[in-house]
Amino acid sequence: MTPNTDRNQTLFDRARQIIPGGVNSPVRAFRAVGGTPRFVQRAQGAYFWDANGQRYIDYIGSWGPMILGHGHPAVVAAVQKAVLDGFSFGAPTEREVELAEAIIALLPSIEMVRLVSSGTEAAMSAIRLARGATGRSKLIKFEGCYHGHADALLVKAGSGLATFGNPTSAGVPPEVVQHTLVLEYNNLAQLEEAFALHGNDLACLMIEPIAGNMNFVRSSVPFMRRCRELCTQHGALLVFDEVMTGFRVALGGAQSVYASAIPGFRPDLTVMGKVIGGGMPLAAFGGPRAIMEQLAPLGPVYQAGTLSGNPVATACGLATLRQISKPGFFEALSAKTRSLVDGLNGAAAAEGVAFSADCQGGMFGFFLLSELPQNYSQVMKSDGTKFNLLFHGLLDRGIYIAPALYEAGFVSAAHTDADIAATISAAREVFRTLK
Ligand code: HOZ
Hints:
By secondary structure, the chain is an alpha/beta fold. Helix 12 crosses helix 13. It is built from 13 helices and 18 strands. The strands form five sheets. A seven-stranded mixed beta sheet has the order 4-14-13-12-9-5-8, with helices on both faces. A four-stranded mixed beta sheet has the order 1-2-3-17. A three-stranded antiparallel beta sheet has the order 15-16-18, covered by helices on one side. The mean pLDDT is about 95.
């Protein structure tokens, strides 16, 4: 018998014995696409190397945080220095103040911010705050938007707008989601109807302004304008989940993109994560002083965390924000991402494959559909079999995209023109086999 030399497979087999599914977050298990997950050994710049020593151009970047690429020297230096000064105190530090100031300087909608450790925690806390501040229980979310795995958010649409949602996970009691109303993304008529029925009972409407958990789908400007108007009219808070888009689609996040189309536009609360931690566990939520002062210890809404504002994570996040705030950073990143998307569109067209792609800043998405989808049910029409062939075709050629068709992709400042060209040419080869 020949010995198994595939270290990814050996590690996966070991992992499956002791970690459910062999992974610590489900999408990493490759169940949607089949095959063996790549166990990352190390990463540098735009690349990571797996347990077999195979190099990949990385278009996940830890699902968004690695906007500078892996191991940026300024970030590494900041983290090394922070570690030497101690890596958890459970008491306040100067860097937390600096990071809060940096966030507030970049997002005009935020006057006060609270740091936490994960996007799930930030979204869950923002909802508690919205409920506490308004004294209301109900909330709206949209099908295909993911806001972490807090109980009240693991919900799919009920049978109609008069009924609230059903849990999407075992272990979530129906009573916990009975206040969550799930609407179709970009559906103005449903939005109007939901507010007409429930507007005065709504604590908040939570939305990914550019959804990154159904690949990459923008909310239309008229839809976003109406979300804002209806929330204001009914006293509900508009909560932007910018865990993916914050400091990623633009320095000012997706809210700055919508503000350039809708004068004076601002969300009430913003949920952040990923880039603000630069790859370390750090997330945040923030908004106007009057709302944020409802949080403990000032107000009645309780929220806390031993690792909140962790000194190593804040050093990593601050160093990352400093780099991306440099003049020209987002122009260069956007141009690079745009060249990838244009190249992929061109390659698919040349090979006669139904394909559409979109991007904003350093975030992109694509579909095996001739037109960009507007909502989750349209996304789900994307050809799953072809996606899996594309995924594995690219993987075999040393290119790592998300192992599921409902995930967005990320370009970093470290991706070179040669990386982009190699990706487009590999994609064209694979497209040729898809017809
Ligand atoms: N929440 C991520 C998908 N949108 C997956 C995170 C991970 O597996 O690391």
